[in-house]
Amino acid sequence: MRAKKSLFQKYGKQNVEIGFGQSYAEGNKRLLNKDGSFNIRRINTIRSIYVDMVQMSWKKFFLYVSLFYGAVNVFFGSIYFFIGPDKIHIKPDHSLLYQYAECISFSVQTLATVGYGVLHPDSFWANFITSVEALFGVLIFAIMTGLCYTRFSRPVAGYKFSANAIIAPYQQINSLQVRVANQRKSNLVEIEATLMFAMDVDDNGNNKRIFLNLELERNKIYYLPLSWTIVHPITPESPLYNKTYDDLKVGNAELMLMVKAHDDAYAQTIHGNTSYIVDEIVWGAKFIPSYYTGKNGMAIFEIDKLGDYTQAELNKIENITETSSH
User: What total number of domains does the chain contain?
Assistant: First the structure.
């Protein structure tokens, strides 16, 4: 790796710790995935069924609930079959498979406390098992109701980020730009953004990863009805100043964007994260407006065009010039 000792010395005092540490990790592609999750697999962690059930997808949630519901009914249905189908008024003139299916059906009625028809317990052990299952069913449905409510009510960020960051002309200099918008119909207020720059450097022969806050044109806006273009002016004080694509590629550079806002629908603060590696930064471009004015004077925002851009010539200064064929 090409030495970056001077870079480390220049920005060493500004280096911040965000929780990843400074030790160099050979082969790391990125620290933060595009969806905002950390590119880290932790082992020997403490598992929480509650946390897993709340955070998993709805498809997986209903799959697990269905499997659990079926397993419980098969378990209790097998007990009824073991103590005797006749104890719950199943006629013995049917096949064993039919009697077993009826036992499971009886378990479903008991677990859901829907009441009995032709099938009903008619012995001490049958009544005891139905009492245990009814209690178990009340607890299970209470837990499932709580999980469903938590999944519906917990705030989920609906941020949409541009697929690429761009290096664009900005006033008499150039800038790094990223776009963000709200995909949901709820209103976001007091939106704040933090843009971090991470890069591997050489410090007296030791590989270290530095994390620097990039100064933004503005790091807070009050509303987000359309899109927000987050701009980092590349001034001489910027760690990106006079850096090329090759410099950032060798240094395994990564941009990490963190956004938070108050969602009026949830009445809570929601967070969103994403990142951009060097190959996701477009040099010499500018974003295309993603909204226009309709015939009635209302602004039409096409959120699917949030990250659309066109090529643009960078300002001719000693700033950022692309030296590769990227």
Answer: 2
